[in-house]
Amino acid sequence: MKWHVLSAAMLVLSVALTGVAAADETVKLNAFPGAGNLAVWVGQREGLFARHGVTVELSHPKGSVDQMKGLLDGRYEILLTALDNVVAYRDGQGVAGVGTIDLVAIMGMDGGFLTLMAAPEIKTIAELKGKVMAVDALTTGYSFALQEILARAGIAKDQVSYVTVGSSGERWKTLQAGKAQAALLNTPTDLDAGDRGFVALATVAHTLSHYQATVAATQRSWAGSHRITVVNFLHGYGDAVTWLVAPEHKDAVIDILHQEMPTLAVGSLGRIAAQLMDPREGIARDLAIDPAGAQMVLDLRAKYAEPARPAGDWHNYADLSYLAEARK
């Protein structure tokens, strides 16, 4: 699929013929901090959301629980979050006190760029037995992917302990403070950890082969009553992805990364950009949800979540009609 960036004149014609691009609407978007927000920054800076009548306000949560509460409170309207979170809170298996949320995934994004990082003295996964793992939350997020990586190395859940601290940045702080010895970290936090002597033991992408980590999600009722806004947001996001993977924009992409994440070492920006734009393991260029990766999420929940329940069909947690409309 090829995304087309409309000129201003074509946008006016599109509005006249289809009514798709309504008057400017603001979307309150919430996403975990990190380089995975690159397409959002591109869309904002290059006016690609604005061309479709959408202004995107980006904010960051403290963790997945804060993200879900913020959605219910109306602080956020669309989330860039783990598909696992969508499933957990839709099925009432999220963190206690939040309740059931009628969440639906509206596009796929990536496999999470997740690396299992360990303290410098640990060289193999087997050495994690008896150690502390830092996670976002035990019932949601990527904790089940972590448990599967450990299980494939012969480590059962009760052979390690867990501390719930929130986002990748918080997990990294916990490792640095010595309060945990390993955690799954997102890019670029994993690269920072590696540069500081922490050890990369495995990646989710290589260990599980297919894993749908990040998706865009919202409440089904909100999407239904804001269909044009959702479609225009997806159209702008798709244009942003097309823009950022274009070879002629390589230097501009690195410059945007530097402006948005000024604390990153300049020498690491090229590595981060290459990882995000990798055709296989980077940002999904067609915004599709990987069927095998989505099913892996449900299979892991069936294996590790409590109370146990059979793995369902991932289509029950997604509505891709908005994406299909945006592609038109």
Explained architecture:
The protein folds into two domains: 195 residues, D-Maltodextrin-Binding Protein, domain 2; 94 residues, D-Maltodextrin-Binding Protein, domain 2. Helices cover 41% and strands 16% of the residues. Strands 2-1-3-10-4 form a five-stranded mixed β-sheet, with helices on both faces. The chain has a five-stranded mixed β-sheet with strand order 7-6-8-5-9, sandwiched between helices. Strand 1, helix 2 and strand 2 form a beta-alpha-beta unit. Helix 2 crosses helix 10, helix 4 packs across helix 13 and helix 5 packs across helix 13. About 6% of the residues have low confidence.
Layout of helices and strands, plus pairs?
Layout: H1 8-18, E1 25-31, H2 38-45, E2 54-59, H3 64-73, E3 78-82, H4 83-90, E4 103-110, E5 115-118, E6 132-135, H5 143-152, E7 161-164, H6 168-176, E8 182-185, H7 189-195, E9 199-203, H8 204-208, E10 214-219, H9 220-225, H10 227-245, H11 250-260, H12 269-276, H13 291-304, H14 321-327
Parallel strand pairs: 1-2, 1-3, 6-7, 6-8
Antiparallel strand pairs: 3-10, 4-10, 5-8, 5-9
Helix pairs in contact: 2-10, 4-13, 5-13, 10-14
CATH topology of the largest domain: D-Maltodextrin-Binding Protein, domain 2
Structural class: alpha/beta
Which regions are unreliable across 5 or more consecutive residues at pLDDT < 50?
4-23
Helix coverage percent of residues? 40-55%
Tell me, briefly, the overall form: globular
